[in-house]
Design goal:
Elements: E1 2-8, H1 17-33, E2 36-45, H2 56-66, E3 72-74, H3 78-81
Parallel strand pairs: 1-2, 1-3
Length: 83
């Protein structure tokens, strides 16, 4: 199975490393479960509120999903996706 990863931090109060931490957790999960994540399918948004729907990383993720470039999306916490 091919999966994408989406990570986000919402404000200046959070640290950029949060993105790296979220991606690392998703990669570890994928590795344990035999899921393939290609680097071009790691999407993220920095300092973007979940209340904003037009986030660049999320928009790119949705376009790739519509093109069926992967079968699943992994997130560290569902609050990061916040559609």
């Amino acid at each position: 199975m091919r999966a994408a990863v989406y990570a986000r931090f919402s404000s200046e109060n959070q640290r950029e490393q949060s993105i790296e931490d979220q991606v690392r957790v998703c990669r570890e999960f994928a590795k344990r479960d035999g899921i393939t994540i290609l680097d071009e399918h790691v999407y993220f948004d920095e300092a973007q509120s979940g209340a904003i729907r037009a986030r660049p990383g999320l928009e790119a993720l949705k376009r790739a999903a519509e093109e069926k470039q992967f079968e699943a999306v992994l997130v560290d916490d569902s609050s990061r996706l916040s559609l």
